[in-house]
Amino acid sequence: MNSAKKDVLDAVGPRLRELRRRRGITLAELGQRTGISESTLSRLEGGSRKPTLELLLPLAEVYAVPLDHLVGAPRRGDPRIHLRPVTRGGMTLVPLSVPGGAQAYKLLISPAPHGEPELQTHEGFEWIYVLAGRLRLLLGEQSLSLNPGEAAEFDTHVPHWIGADGDQAVELLILLGRQGERAHLRVRGT
């Protein structure tokens, strides 16, 4: 086996372990969902068991990722990202990156009826860049207004809220980690 193939196979175990940990799944839960023994999963993640198609297919299904993602295969062919916008609570979140690591989104926020915003916290950091309209950012005790061309970055452990500032929609780019993605999609749906 050439060294490039060996390197790809050696990286599968740590990638599987990281994916499982990011999803908050135990080996026992994963074993129940895939039908693969905990021992085999542990050896697979530790590198003492070589990945096979019969082991990787149920894992890809449980994690809802392409098989290429599990093995770290280089992307080939069409580099375009197939956008699947999510609309909830007056916000439209358009993914601009593939799953994994930091996530990039275009976010459209409609003007909201007047009321008291609910500040949220979650793991990670968030970076926002206003494309159009005016953004209101509540960050702890601060209330900020950002215009097109302005950006902000903050620790998301600090209670925060973003929304349109005024009666016009706001359009922005947002970068956040997986924890932030889950928090924003869940919070905006309530």
TrEMBL record:
Keywords: DNA-binding. The keyword DNA-binding applies. One of its GO terms (cellular component) is cytosol. PROSITE patterns: HTH_CROC1. GO terms for molecular function: DNA binding; DNA-binding transcription factor activity. InterPro entries: Cro/C1-type_HTH, Cupin_2, Lambda_DNA-bd_dom_sf, RmlC-like_jellyroll, RmlC_Cupin_sf, TransReg_Diox_bact_type. Residues 16-70 form the HTH cro/C1-type domain. The keyword DNA-binding applies. Pfam families: Cupin_2, HTH_31. PANTHER family: HTH-TYPE TRANSCRIPTIONAL REGULATOR, METHYLPHOSPHONATE SYNTHASE. This is Transcriptional regulator with XRE-family HTH domain. It comes from Streptomyces murinus.
